[in-house]
Write a structure and sequence with these properties.
Length: 572
């Protein structure tokens, strides 16, 4: 079992909750919208507290049952009232559920309703993971001075780039989430959909049918949101994303923000862009990143602890629970939390590890050698064995079966003489040539243990043609910049650093058919002959952020949790 799977709990103390009867609840409060639709909300009030500050949550996943814990119910006994609203078209709220499309208008109307209530304290905070966090970002810049705090997890202010990772279509996540939200409206759907939607989506994705038919194949009927994502893959000019992307307003948010993410979460790169936007605007957000994936239950307790400390500081005036350093990240492979003043960590060194002919990798410069080549067949796309996924486990897995495929180039360093700490954004600078104008390149970073086990650390891809591709000379070679997921990982002494270069990560992203035809309806597929150059004039490399242990980082003593079994990978 890899050491990054053992997670210590951050040292945050909780105050004692108030009383033995912690709260009362009023169900199905009607919240009128300007267009005549009524949304429903539940209000939880702590016992014996007069007009406590409010925490607002807006969710498409239901207000009661197991969902109540994710909706913030644990905050109530500590002196906060909680208002949980079902967004339009879900769990009894009127209207039609239009994912991402109504959250700003409905959210701001809800805030105005909240301010008119006699029980409103005058201040409120916003809370939530995933879609709940997105709904909070949708209103944050225009909610007014009453919004005093935000605590958001595994989310981002825009889901656009997460739907089109590197310009490719995030097939598995898009199909999974659309199927999930459709199925949860059925009897017992809230319980069964999370267990079946990913399996249905993966099975449909592997059918070989055109992308436009996969929603019917997975869910039995056409699903609007999935079709919208397909239709707007490259049609930015039609305005679909104009009222669904709030990344441009992040710097205008005045309320203090704390963010929690996971190294294997599907939204991490864009969550970190939100952090950087806040920093650029002069704010001091807090940031926590652990070894978690999107549905990983292990980040639940950390979420409650850190959010409670944040809300006590900014809604109750008690900052005693806040940590000294704004940034805390868990370094996998080292098994420890690090505290930093900022992200990326101050003092990070950007190191170019060059790809070498014959499958080598290192900081030394490459020698003259022919390009490495492979053939990509979109009819039999290269799979992804691990990596971020919306539902299910994204635990790192052994990639050796993938590395035996002829459509995967593998470059491996010598055994490390000392620990190598890689903390920050990871990228690749590649010189490539393809006989297809339309093609993908995928880069993956792996940690190779002395026994040969090769576990994925992070990955990313780029679909061509793209603005990130620059012609090099007149021989068809292009220089491309590929953004991988950020990471915080130690490659221990004796381990090796490994890089994959390939052209598919199916079904996480849809295979590029190579023809340039519209994504939704493309049926003809052509193979691509790919070349990756690694000579002195075209030195392809992966760019690693190397962090030296220094006074910049403080490391709390770890308190290990029991190990969990490693999940099986997919067949290559």
């Amino acid at each position: 079992m890899a050491p990054w799977d053992r997670l210590p709990t951050p040292p945050i103390k909780l105050p004692r909750p108030r009383g033995l009867a912690p709260y009362t609840v009023r169900r199905d409060l009607p919240v009128p919208m300007p267009d005549g639709v009524t949304l429903l909300a539940d209000r939880y009030v702590p016992f014996g507290v007069e007009r406590p500050p409010t925490i607002l949550v807006r969710t498409p996943y239901g207000r009661r049952g197991p969902a109540a814990l994710a909706n913030g119910l644990p905050f109530v006994p500590f002196g906060f009232q909680l208002v949980v609203q079902s967004v339009r078209g879900t769990s009894g709220s009127g209207g039609e559920f239009d994912p991402l499309g109504r959250e700003r208008d409905d959210g701001l109307a809800t805030v105005e309703w909240l301010k008119r209530q006699p029980w409103f304290h005058g201040t409120f905070g916003a809370f939530g993971p995933s879609y709940l966090g997105y709904a909070a970002w949708a209103i944050a810049a225009a909610a007014g001075p009453e919004l005093k705090a935000m605590s958001l997890q595994i989310t981002a202010s825009s889901f656009r780039d997460a739907a089109y990772v590197g310009g490719s279509f995030a097939l598995e996540s898009a199909l999974t989430w659309t199927d999930l939200t459709h199925r949860q409206r059925r009897p017992l759907g809230m319980l069964t959909a999370p267990l079946t939607s990913r399996r249905r989506a993966v099975r449909a994705a592997r059918s070989g049918r055109p992308l436009s038919e996969l929603d019917v194949l997975a869910g039995g009927r056409s699903m609007r949101f999935y079709q919208d994502l397909l239709a707007n893959h490259t049609a930015a000019e039609n305005g679909y994303w104009d009222d669904r992307d709030f990344s441009g307003t992040v710097g205008d948010v005045a309320a203090p923000v704390t963010l929690l993410g996971g190294w294997y979460d599907v939204f991490l790169p864009w969550q970190l862009k939100d952090y950087l936007a806040l920093r650029a605007a002069g704010h001091t957000p807090y940031l926590t990143i652990g070894p978690w994936w999107h549905t990983d239950a292990r980040h639940g307790l950390v979420t409650i602890r850190e959010s409670l400390a944040w809300f006590r500081a900014h809604l109750l005036g008690d900052p005693s629970g806040l940590r000294r350093d704004p940034v805390r990240v868990y370094v996998t492979g080292a098994g420890e939390w690090r505290h930093y003043r900022d992200w990326p960590p101050p003092g990070t060194r950007q190191a170019a590890w060059r790809l070498h002919a014959g499958g080598g990798l290192g900081e030394d410069g490459p020698r003259d050698a022919p390009a490495s080549t492979y053939r990509f067949d979109p009819a039999r796309p290269t799979p992804a064995l691990g990596g971020p996924t919306l539902l299910g486990s994204s635990r790192p897995v052994d990639n050796r079966r993938l590395e035996r495929r002829p459509d995967v180039l593998v470059f491996t360093s010598a055994a490390l003489a000392a620990d190598l700490d890689v903390v920050g954004p990871v990228g690749a600078d590649l010189f490539v040539r393809s006989d297809r104008e339309h093609t993908d390149f995928v880069v993956r970073l792996c940690d190779v243990a002395p026994d040969g086990t090769s576990r994925n650390v992070c990955e990313g891809g780029l679909r061509l043609p793209a603005a990130a591709a620059k012609p090099v000379g007149t021989d068809g070679v292009r220089r491309i910049a590929v953004d991988l997921w950020p990471t915080g990982h130690r490659f221990p002494r004796g381990h090796r650093v490994r890089v994959h270069v390939t052209s598919g990560a199916h079904p996480k992203v849809a295979a590029n058919p190579g023809t340039g035809e519209p994504l939704a309806t493309a049926t003809r597929m052509v193979t691509a002959h790919q070349e990756v150059f690694h000579d002195p004039d075209r030195p392809s490399a992966i760019i690693l952020p190397i962090v030296e242990r220094s006074a910049e980082a403080t490391v709390p003593a770890p308190a290990e949790e029991p190990e969990e079994p490693e999940g099986p990978g997919e067949s290559a």
